[in-house]
């Protein structure tokens, strides 16, 4: 039987996504009570990182250890991947030895090629195209604070990058309105914009995007792999900072989220990210809980599916 993968939010149905989020909050409560829940002894997660990471690495590795299994960190520097072994060959071999694979890489197509040859479920830990695990954590955080996201308004301010693309996927799967304020030339993926038609508005003005929003969110101006574009991006994104003026347009109880790492003084002011509307620490912690729920969902013999 072909394994289920999690390469985008479209790989799970809305009911399955809601199940994972509910389960994440349950696992979080149990973890906080100090209960041991280790249903996967001897299960192994392989983690390929072709880009840097703090949250993704630690949340997957700690999460798998807490579930009773273990994780292996693999980087191109010290595997044959870095010496040109085809991704398809790596996939066949790795998936014959581990139970789950998580990959963070550049081209989304590389992740898809790996998944096509993998006999184990594959999880997207970020590509240049999207970052669905982060969206699971963002949605868990919003729902824990405001109970439901359906019909709400989310404002995305800044680069139409991998995070913005995943917000488009989320708008479709969780049925909310997304307003994107991006400078010309930095819009998100056209295919996803079309798929989210009816649920998305593409604007230029951050203040208009934030008006009456329930959630305001942003991300760095310079994603990993774009380092050589630093100067032109610094110029293009002037005026695309989430600050108190932008937050004042949103609903008074609006939440601010940021996937982190953040650059205070660029895409977000210190006042906002360190202020009372910011839930970024909960958001980061929820990576642990929601990915445990996701791994449980994907592993054979995991928790009952909806
Ligand atoms: N948000 C996120 O994915 O963080 P890392 O790059 O630290 O994994
Ligand atoms: N857009 C950022 C997200 C980091 C978690 C990047 O790709 O670098």
UniProtKB/TrEMBL annotation:
Broad EC category: transferase
Top-level taxonomic group: Bacteria
GO terms of molecular function: amino acid binding; ornithine carbamoyltransferase activity
Binding site for carbamoyl phosphate: 53-56, 80, 104, 131-134, 259-260, 287
EC number(s) per entry: 2.1.3.3
Main subcellular location of this protein, as a coarse class: cytoplasm
UniProt entry keywords in alphabetical sequence: Cytoplasm, Transferase
Stated name of the protein: Ornithine carbamoyltransferase
The UniProt record lists the keyword Transferase: yes
Gene Ontology cellular-component terms listed: cytoplasm
Extent of the signal sequence: none
Catalytic activity: carbamoyl phosphate + L-ornithine = L-citrulline + phosphate + H(+)
Occurrences of domain Aspartate/ornithine carbamoyltransferase carbamoyl-P binding (ranges): 4-144
Amino acids binding L-ornithine: 162, 219, 223-224
InterPro entries: Asp/Orn_carbamoyltranf_P-bd, Asp/Orn_carbamoylTrfase, Asp/Orn_carbamoylTrfase_sf, Asp_carbamoyltransf_Asp/Orn-bd, Orn/put_carbamltrans, OTCase_ArgI
Locations listed in the record: Cytoplasm
Transmembrane residue ranges: none
All residue ranges annotated as the Aspartate/ornithine carbamoyltransferase Asp/Orn-binding domain in the record: 151-297
Family: Belongs to the aspartate/ornithine carbamoyltransferase superfamily. OTCase family.
Pathway, per record: Amino-acid biosynthesis; L-arginine biosynthesis; L-arginine from L-ornithine and carbamoyl phosphate: step 1/3
Gene Ontology biological process terms, A to Z: citrulline biosynthetic process; L-arginine biosynthetic process via ornithine
Keyword DNA-binding found: no
């Amino acid at each position: 039987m072909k394994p289920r993968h999690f390469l985008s939010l479209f790989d799970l149905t809305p009911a399955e996504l809601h199940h994972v989020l509910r389960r994440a909050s349950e696992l979080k409560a149990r973890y906080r009570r100090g209960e041991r829940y280790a249903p996967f002894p001897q299960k192994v997660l392989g983690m390929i990182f072709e880009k840097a990471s703090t949250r993704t690495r630690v949340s997957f590795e700690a999460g798998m250890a807490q579930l009773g299994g273990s994780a292996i960190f693999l980087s191109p520097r010290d595997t044959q991947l870095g010496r040109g072994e085809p991704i398809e060959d790596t996939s066949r071999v790795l998936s014959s030895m581990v139970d789950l694979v998580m990959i963070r890489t550049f081209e989304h197509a590389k992740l898809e090629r790996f998944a096509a040859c993998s006999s184990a479920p594959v999880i997207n830990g970020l590509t240049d195209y999207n970052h669905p695990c982060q969206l699971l954590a963002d949605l868990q955080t919003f729902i824990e604070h405001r109970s439901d996201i359906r019909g709400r308004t989310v404002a995305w301010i800044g680069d139409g990058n991998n995070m913005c693309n995943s917000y488009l996927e989320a708008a479709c799967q969780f049925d909310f309105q997304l307003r994107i304020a991006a400078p010309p030339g930095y819009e998100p993926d056209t295919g996803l914009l079309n798929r989210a038609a009816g649920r998305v508005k593409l604007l230029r003005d951050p203040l208009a995007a934030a008006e009456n929003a329930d959630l305001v969110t942003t991300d760095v101006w310079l994603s990993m792999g774009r380092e050589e574009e630093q100067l032109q991006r610094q110029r293009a994104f002037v005026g695309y900072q989430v600050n108190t003026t932008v937050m004042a347009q949103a609903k008074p109880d609006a939440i601010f989220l940021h996937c982190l790492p953040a650059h205070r003084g660029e895409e977000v002011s210190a006042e906002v990210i360190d202020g009372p509307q910011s839930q970024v620490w909960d958001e980061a912690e929820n990576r642990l809980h929601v990915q445990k729920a996701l791994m449980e969902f994907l592993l054979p013999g995991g928790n009952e599916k909806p």
